[in-house]
Amino acid sequence: MTAKPGKKDFHGYIQVYTGNGKGKTTAALGLALRAAGRGLRTYFGQFLKGQDYGELRAVRALSPLLTIEQFGRQGFIHVGENPDQEDFQRAREGLDKCRAAMLSGRFDLVVLDEINVALHFKLLDEKDVLKFLEEKPETVEIVLTGRYAPQSVLDRADLVTDMSCLKHYYERGVRARDGIER
Asked: What is the CATH number of the domain that holds 34?
């Protein structure tokens, strides 16, 4: 294993993975895997997710280099349909936990998975997420994932990847598969 870079040598940036294509969370997990290979520690906060995904099982092998917490409840939220007070509370608590991880000095990379969707559903206020980004220590890398990234977040980011969908087997009725989509 290569030695972890010194904190004084590491400059953290803000990355956004957005768009309607598949692979935003997967890309963030790939980055966390790469970071672990260099001895960097990642905190991965999953907004809106409360289900048993494959990454939760795999992460056990990378602990303590990769920590994942889920802030969502079981089931899915559909905009305008069923977000309730619990969803708002979980999102706020999730942002607080991500902030604590970011400021703790324990993590080099902090991922806010599906935060853009939480913003789109109005579970969080945009200004609170922008304030979070302003508090980022110089030595912490931040990744925000999810469709619908607001322009204010895109403007603040140092790197933006827009994943577009050209073709997807979901359109043929293929459901999410264990180990591939979940």
From this structure: 3.40.50.300
User: DSSP letter string over the chain?
Assistant: -PPPPPGGG----EEEEESSSS-HHHHHHHHHHHHHHTT--EEEEESS--S--HHHHHHGGGTTTEEEEE-SPSS---TTTS--HHHHHHHHHHHHHHHHHHHSSS-SEEEEETHHHHHHTTSS-HHHHHHHHHT--TT-EEEEESS---HHHHHH-SEEEE---S--GGGGTPPP-TTTT-
Could you tell me the residue range of the domain that residue 89 belongs to? 9-172
On whether residue 66 sits in a domain, the answer given is yes
* 152: in domain: yes
Mean pLDDT lowest for which of 14-18, 48-52, 79-83, 150-154?
Answer: 79-83
Whole-prediction pTM: 0.90
Per the domain annotation, does 178 fall within a domain?
Answer: no
Q: Which position has the higher pLDDT, 35 or 48?
A: 35
The number of folded domains in the chain is 1
Structural domain includes residue 2: no
